[in-house]
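Action item from last week, closing it out:
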Amino acid sequence: MLQYCYDDIGVKMTKTIMSIRELTRNGNMFNKYDYIDIEDKKSKDYKGVFVSAKYANLVKKFLEEQILKEKQNKLNKLMKFAGTIEVDDDFKTKDAKEIRKMMAEDKYSE
């Protein structure tokens, strides 16, 4: 089923919807379409998209930028809390193993 869609600047792109089985049986579909939506034909679940080679670098660049933005947002959220916790003087010079030992001794000595 051939469909046309238009991008932001009005360029017509060819696309189709097919199942993974159809795609594996007919590999030359990559040459016919700009992108192919993949869906499960029985349940109509959307599985993903295949992009033709001429748009692959653009898609990769876009995805890398999006992933970088998401990671930076997560880091920014974490950095709001960095340095806000005060550590007791008892724990400043000890490593994690020593701290766990001290906590266990305090807990079970009572």
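Closing note: Helices lie at 20-25, 29-32, 53-79, 89-92, 96-108.
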